[in-house]
Each structure stands twice: as structure tokens, then as C-alpha cells.
């Protein structure tokens, strides 16, 4: 493993460079502001008059339309969503000067051949291992989110030094920068999202909630046990790994973890993970996602509407309303986050409208009937041998 820190940075690599940040969402905003505060000449390329344009101007940044922003730029960072990067690149490629650096925060479009940069460009990747809001906050606190660095094309012989200088500019060298490849970053990122961080974690939460509710427990209690308290565990894991989690949970919780956890996430689940990884590495997932976008995302929209139309979401919304501090917007949150939230609410409204009236009425907390509890079965005390077998 090659790990770089602040002492490894060539401060001359981007000295006097003009940096164009394309996009002002989660990562775009964080990168632009951090680079500006580090002392770089930054211009943000966004749609004229849009939310990003207005927010970037309010926050003291120079703004321009993407085609204009890249004119004369020494480094161009493409920080818009994956599905629209190809179209954007086609619109700006003729404006990129020879010897410029084209930078990405995720390798999807380079690795899967959606974008094929000109041979006279450096093509690099700096991928912070955290959302943009965290990248910004950590920088302001004198800390930094670790980053991954990769070079796909080195036309000038300076690609690596420029990428590391960029990572330093957004605070990444404070947390450490690990060298990787576009393939490794892309494949591990997609797998992690699908099998663990997003797909795996949320499905585990929902299935646990449903199991308790179906057994007759109060939905509110099930919500607290399976979703609300998850943050406590994730924070402990994030701060100190498995060891810190075990240090701060009860002995009973630890024993349950060690003896029951492997029964839930077992070899069958791991085999499914292997299948998911195979689909990522073969390009099958990428082809499916590209095709879905080309067709207007019909299946994606359907699945997303179904995912947020669950009992756990309705129960959670009611409980979170009693904790208004959870809803406080962080200062300077990117405009894109608000747009996603609005889109999500609109999608939920459309999904609710399509349900029969009776179901819509049942979905309203005030009108819903309390679930009838099923009697809980009393199990006989387990023998020592039975406990050993279960473990």
C-alpha cells in the first residue's frame, strides 16, 4: 500500500493553476470551497441561473457555464452525477487545452469506457472516502477525509503530482491518500454501496423491523431497535472498529453478536455478495445502469417509490417529528441535497396517489388502527449443549 501525507506533496505541481469545478452538489461544493480556502484560483462551472449557480455566487465563488469555465483551465474536475458526465464531456472536450488535467471523484465513466479522453490530457482520480458535507466540515476543523488517488493517463508526466496536490488542496493529505487504480476504486465502491453500505444495510434494517412487527411488537419499538439505534453502532465502528464497538456494548449484546450474527450473515449471504461483485467486475451492472438511464429510468423510479413506501418510513417519520433537532439543516448544505429531498417527497406523493383509497387512509398515522399483537411463544430454557451448538 502506498500512503501519502502532506510531506509528500509537490507544492509547485499546481502553483498558479486555474481549477474548474464542474458541478456544485455535495462533492463539487466541498472541493470548490476547500480549494479556494487553500489559495487556488477556482471557477465553478454550472448551469446559468440554476440553484448551484446562485449558491456558489452567494458563497463567494466565480461562476460560469461549463463550456466557458474550462477555457484555459489547467485542471478540470468533473463532479456531477455519473449518468450525465458523458454528455457533459462531449460538450466541453473541445475547450480543454492540451496538457490539462481531467479529474474525477469516481472512476465509473473512465473504467467502463463511457468517456474516452483525448490523448493529450492527464486523467486522474481523487475520491474522498466520505460525502461532500464531511469533506467540507473536516477541512474547516483542520482535519481531512482520506482520499484514493489513481492515474489513468499521464500525458505530461505530472499527472500523479497534480492529483496529489489537488488532494492536498481539499484536505485529503491530512487524513492520508492511498494510491489505487480506476478499476479498483470503481469496483470496490460499487460493491460496497450495493452489498454493505446502502443495499445490504437498509435491507437488514427493514427485514429486522418487519420480523418484529409481524411477531406482534409495537412498530415504534421495532423502529428504535432496528433503525434508530443503528447510528450508535456505526459511530463506534467508524471511530474504533470492532474493538471499540465491543468495548461500549453490553456483555449480553456481545454474546448475541458473536453467536447469532453469523447465522444471519452466513455463507449463503456471502455467496450472494460474490455474485454481486462478479456482476460489478464483468460490467453487467454498469451496462444495466447505463441502459436504465437511456430509457428514462422506469424501473429505477418504480423501485425507489416502492422502497420509500414502507411502514418503517411512516413510523419513522412520526417518531423523528418529535426530535426536531434531527431535521436541522447543516450550514451551507449543497443545493443538490435539497433538490433530492424535494424529488423524494414528490415521488412518495405520486406513489401514495396511485394506491387505492383504503390503503392511503391506512397509511396515515392518525387513522391507522393499532396492530393486534400475537401472543409470544415461551421457549423452554436452552441446555448448555444447545447453546454451544447455536454458537
Quick overview of this protein structure:
The protein is an alpha/beta fold and 391 residues long. The protein has helices at residues 26-38, 51-58, 66-69, 82-92, 108-111, 132-140, 159-169, 172-175, 182-197, 199-214, 219-228, 230-248, 251-264, 267-282, 284-294, 298-308, 311-320, 335-354, 357-363, 384-390; strands at residues 3-4, 18-22, 41-45, 62-64, 75-78, 101-104, 122-128, 147-153, 177-179. α9 (182-197) packs antiparallel against α14.
Question: Can you characterise this structure?
Answer:
- This protein has 391 residues and is of the alpha/beta class.
- It has two domains: 3-181, 3-Layer(aba) Sandwich (Rossmann fold), CATH 3.40.50; 192-363, no CATH class.
- It has helices at 26-38, 51-58, 66-69, 82-92, 108-111, 132-140, 159-169, 172-175, 182-197, 199-214, 219-228, 230-248, 251-264, 267-282, 284-294, 298-308, 311-320, 335-354, 357-363, 384-390, and strands at residues 3-4, 18-22, 41-45, 62-64, 75-78, 101-104, 122-128, 147-153, 177-179.
- The chain has a nine-stranded mixed sheet.
- Helix 1 links the parallel strand 2 (18-22) and strand 3 (41-45).
- The radius of gyration is 24 Å and the shape is globular.
- The two termini are 36 Å apart.
- 29% of the residues are buried.
- Mean pLDDT is 88; it is low at 335-391.
Amino acid at each position: 500500500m502506498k500512503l501519502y501525507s502532506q510531506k509528500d506533496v509537490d507544492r509547485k505541481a499546481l502553483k498558479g493553476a486555474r481549477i474548474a469545478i464542474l458541478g456544485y452538489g455535495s462533492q463539487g461544493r466541498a472541493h470548490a470551497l476547500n480549494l479556494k480556502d487553500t489559495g487556488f484560483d477556482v471557477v465553478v462551472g454550472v448551469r446559468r441561473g440554476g440553484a448551484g449557480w446562485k449558491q456558489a455566487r452567494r458563497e463567494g465563488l466565480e461562476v460560469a457555464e461549463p463550456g466557458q469555465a474550462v477555457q484555459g483551465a489547467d485542471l478540470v474536475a468533473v463532479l456531477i452525477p455519473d449518468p450525465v458526465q458523458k454528455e457533459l464531456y462531449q460538450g466541453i472536450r473541445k475547450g480543454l487545452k492540451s496538457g490539462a488535467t481531467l479529474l474525477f471523484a469516481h472512476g465509473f465513466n473512465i473504467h467502463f469506457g463511457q468517456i474516452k479522453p483525448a490523448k493529450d490530457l492527464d486523467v486522474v482520480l481523487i475520491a474522498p472516502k466520505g460525502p461532500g458535507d464531511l469533506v467540507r466540515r473536516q477541512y474547516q476543523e483542520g482535519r481531512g477525509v482520506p482520499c484514493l488517488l489513481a492515474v489513468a493517463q499521464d500525458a505530461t508526466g505530472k499527472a500523479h503530482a497534480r492529483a496529489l496536490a489537488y488532494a492536498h488542496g481539499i484536505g485529503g493529505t491530512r487524513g492520508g491518500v492511498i494510491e489505487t487504480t480506476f478499476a479498483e476504486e470503481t469496483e470496490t465502491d460499487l460493491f460496497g454501496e450495493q452489498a454493505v453500505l446502502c443495499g445490504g444495510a437498509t435491507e437488514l434494517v427493514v427485514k429486522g423491523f418487519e420480523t418484529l412487527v409481524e411477531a406482534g411488537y409495537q412498530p415504534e419499538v421495532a423502529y428504535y431497535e432496528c433503525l434508530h439505534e443503528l447510528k450508535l453502532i456505526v459511530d463506534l465502528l467508524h471511530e474504533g472498529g470492532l474493538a471499540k464497538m465491543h468495548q461500549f456494548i453490553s456483555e449480553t449484546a456481545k454474546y448475541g453478536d458473536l453467536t447469532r450474527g453469523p447465522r444471519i450473515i452466513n455463507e449463503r449471504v456471502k455467496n450472494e455478495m460474490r455474485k454481486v461483485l462478479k456482476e460489478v467486475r464483468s460490467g453487467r451492472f454498469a451496462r444495466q445502469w447505463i441502459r436504465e438511464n437511456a430509457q428514462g429510468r422506469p424501473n429505477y423510479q418504480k423501485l425507489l417509490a416502492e422502497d420509500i413506501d414502507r411502514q418503517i418510513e411512516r413510523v419513522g417519520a412520526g417518531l423523528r417529528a418529535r426530535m426536531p433537532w434531527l431535521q436541522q439543516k447543516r450550514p451551507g448544505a449543497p443545493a443538490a441535497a435539497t433538490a433530492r429531498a424535494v424529488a423524494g417527497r414528490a415521488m412518495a406523493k405520486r406513489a401514495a396517489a396511485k394506491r387505492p383509497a383504503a390503503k392511503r387512509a391506512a397509511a396515515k398515522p392518525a387513522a391507522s388502527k393499532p396492530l393486534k399483537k400475537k401472543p409470544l411463544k415461551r421457549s423452554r430454557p436452552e441446555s448448555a449443549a444447545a447453546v454451544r451448538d447455536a454458537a
